[in-house]
Amino acid sequence: MIRTIFAGRLAALVFALSGCVTNPPLPVRPSTETIVAFSFSGRIAVRQGETRHHAKLDWRHDSASDEILVTTPFGQGVAEITRDASGAHLLLADQRRFSAADWGELSQEVFGFRLPLQASTRWLLGNVAEIEGWRIRVTERESIAPDALPTVIELERERDDITVRLKIDEWGEVR
Fold first, then answer.
1. The CATH number of the domain where 134 resides is what?
2. Is 11 contained in some domain?
3. Range scoring the smallest mean pLDDT among 1-5, 20-24, 86-90, 106-110
4. Please, is 28 exposed, middle or buried when counting C-beta atoms within 10 Å of its C-beta (0-12, 13-18, 19+)?
5. Per DSSP, which regions of the chain are E strands?
6. What radius of gyration do the chain's Cα atoms show?
7. What is the pLDDT of residues 131-166, one digit of tens each?
8. DSSP codes joined into one string, 23-39
9. Alpha-carbon distance 110 to 15, whole Å?
């Protein structure tokens, strides 16, 4: 009898607590077709051959500019990447600076290959395809809604044996 009462109370407690674990509703967002500005925080994992790198990202975008802060997983600043009317710029933690007319030229100069950053607004919002030899896939989204924003994006370029996985932890302002 005591066991039955205890089991019943335990089941009621589990049931009551399970109601507290629901995810908060997602904010109402504009259609991905009409978004012109956004920000997000996330993590990135890059693998090229046997080499692997992990970092955190804070990215702010609007039609005129992008600002990306790259930090170590522990929060130490590694690089600032910006894009505006004057071009694309990279400032490293050791104060070395690189500049180019656009993101493609900058990544070619720094890494030896072009990253698909010129079209980043499209693929960050989930409009994926093959861009400049990169296969881009959204593997997770905020929800099952048709216009849900991506939360995991994978980029792969077989020719250079590179895989990039971007995990968006939190979308900030989206307008």
1. 2.50.20.10
2. no
3. 1-5
4. exposed
5. 38-48, 51-62, 65-71, 77-84, 87-92, 97-100, 130-131, 134-141, 150-157, 162-174
6. 21
7. 989 999 999 999 999 889 999 999 999 999 999 999
8. PPPPPP---TTT---EE
9. 55
**Rounded to an integer, what distance in angstroms lies between the CA atom of residue 62 and that of residue 174?**
10
Provide the number of structural domains found in the chain: 1
Range of the domain at 110: 30-174
Cα–Cα distance measured from residue 140 to residue 134, given in angstroms and rounded to the nearest whole number: 18
pLDDT band of 13, cuts 50, 70, 90: very low
Phi (first) and psi of residue 83, to 5 degrees: -140, 130
Taking the CA atoms of residue 31, residue 62, residue 90 and residue 43 in that order, the dihedral angle to the nearest 10 degrees is -30
**87 within a domain of the structure (yes/no):** yes
Tokens of 110: 């720094």
